[in-house]
Every structure is written in structure tokens, then in C-alpha cells.
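GNAT family N-acetyltransferase: C-alpha cells wanted.
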Amino acid sequence: MTAIPVRAATREDIAFLVQSNAAMAWETEQRRLDLDLLQRGVSGVFEQPGRGVYRIAERDGRAAGCLLLTREWSDWRNGDWWWIQSVYVGEEHRRHGVFGALYRSVEAEARAAGAVGLRLYVEWENERAQRTYEALGMQREHYHMYRKGFIAGG
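Answer:
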């Protein structure tokens, strides 16, 4: 298998990131996102880097997959959990190691930065993704997630 390079996303990747997020929302939740709002949300990461960073995996010289990294301070551990969010691999690039390359790159980066670990959330029904995460050494947490939205669709 050919090595899959992973790089930091740039503003030139915003269209790909918006398209990927919209596709992921549809595939996982059958939810159509407001593309103008999504565009502003993705752009907001580049406007204020403290919000997170995107990573892009390339295959055959073009963007094939992406994810967003955010941080959550843990007072219990005196360090940051790195959250993997907005994961998407284009359909034609699946089962070619794209997510594995993204994950291994992020894991190495997090370890080097002194993060306390990696976390992500996945729909309960998405068993294929769960198997992928477990194969990469991640363990299921014992928490349920709750939310209360303050915006339409939130």
C-alpha cells in the first residue's frame, strides 16, 4: 500500500472541508446542513486557531479524507484530551488506509505534544467505524453524551 501523506489543512481546503462535513452529516444522520452556516463554521477554525485544526489525508495527489482536532482541558489529569471530530473519508477512498493514516499522524502529534489521550464520539449504530477505532487501539468509554442546543438545528 502506498503511503498516504497527512498535512495541515489551509484556507484553500475550505471547500473540501465543507463538502466533507455536509456529506458526513448526511451519511451518518441523514441531516442536511445549512451550507452557508457550515462554511462560516469551517472558516472560523482558520480565523481563530485556538478553536482547532483540520488535518487532510491525500491519496493520488488529492484530498481524500479529513478530520478536525479540538482540545479539552482535563483538571483531573492536568493536561489536554485531543478530540477527533468531523471525520470524513470520501467514498472512493475508503478501505485504502486513509483514516488509519490520519489517526496515526494525529496520535503521534498528540503524544509529542504531551496530550493525555485521544477521544472521539461515534453513533451507536455505526459498528463499522467502531471496529475501525478499536482496531487502532481505542477503547469504548462508559459515558453517555448529553446536549442542549441553543440555535436552530443545534
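The chain has a mean pLDDT of 94. The two ends are 40 Å apart (CA to CA).

Cheers.
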